[in-house]
Design goal:
- This protein has 200 residues and is mainly α.
- It has a single domain, classed as Four Helix Bundle (Hemerythrin (Met), subunit A).
- Helix content is 84%, strand content 0%.
- The protein has helices at residues 3-23, 29-53, 59-83, 88-110, 119-148, 151-154, 157-192, 195-198.
- Helix 5 (119-148) packs antiparallel against helix 7 (157-192).
- The longest helix is centred in the last third of the chain and has 36 residues, at 157-192.
- The chain starts with a helix and ends with a helix.
């Protein structure tokens, strides 16, 4: 197995550790989750660059790289729902898009063809990762702020409600922006590969 594919598998292996750091409430867990997600995101950049530069592009990489991205991003979004950090509607749309695109890939694979991610798919992934990283940064900063503030303020119901409101709606805006790109990329992907659906 070449280096880019190892990086892709490494990204998948990091997912359960990221999920555990995000959902298990221990000191600085949001910061650790943030660092793990950034590390996984970096592997997404590196594997493609190394594969192209060293001519190590493989069919496995074409299939596994976007799959690893989906596993990472969807794990984060589903955890956000579990934590009450975002609404489920945008995530359902993203899930529908990913199932539709993956179905086309499986049909193509059964016909002996491998469909690589296109430019719009990469844009979608980048906007999703930026949104997730930003939300994790906001949450980590909020945790640090609570530690630094006097307890009378940090435990104030008004302060907590206001902070959580801003964090929620700020995160929602970022997720919906990335969801718009997910929809656009999904429509383009289905249009470019509609022959796999329309074949009799």
């Amino acid at each position: 197995m070449n280096l880019p594919n190892k990086l892709t598998l490494g990204r998948i292996i990091l997912v359960p550790f990221f999920v555990a750091a995000l959902l298990i409430p221990f000191p600085f867990h949001n910061i650790i989750a943030l660092l793990l997600f950034i590390a996984a995101s970096i592997t997404d950049t590196l594997d493609g660059k190394i594969a192209r530069k060293m001519n190590l592009i493989t069919d496995f990489g074409k299939f596994a790289d976007p799959l690893a991205d989906k596993i990472l991003v969807l794990s984060a979004l589903l955890c956000f729902i579990q934590l009450g950090w975002c609404d489920c509607v945008a995530v359902i749309i993203v899930l529908f898009r990913e199932f539709a695109v993956t179905s086309i890939r499986l049909i193509a694979s059964a016909k002996g063809e491998v469909i690589a991610a296109n430019m719009w798919g990469k844009v979608k992934t980048v906007t999703q990762m930026i949104a997730i990283i930003a939300i994790l940064v906001f949450r980590a900063a909020y945790d640090i702020t609570l530690m630094l503030l006097p307890s009378s303020i940090a435990q104030s119901a008004d302060f907590t409600a206001a902070a959580n409101g801003w964090l929620f709606w700020g995160g929602e805006a970022l997720i919906w922006i990335s969801t718009v790109f997910a929809i656009i990329s999904g429509v383009i992907y289905l249009a470019q590969n509609r022959h796999f659906i329309s074949e009799k």
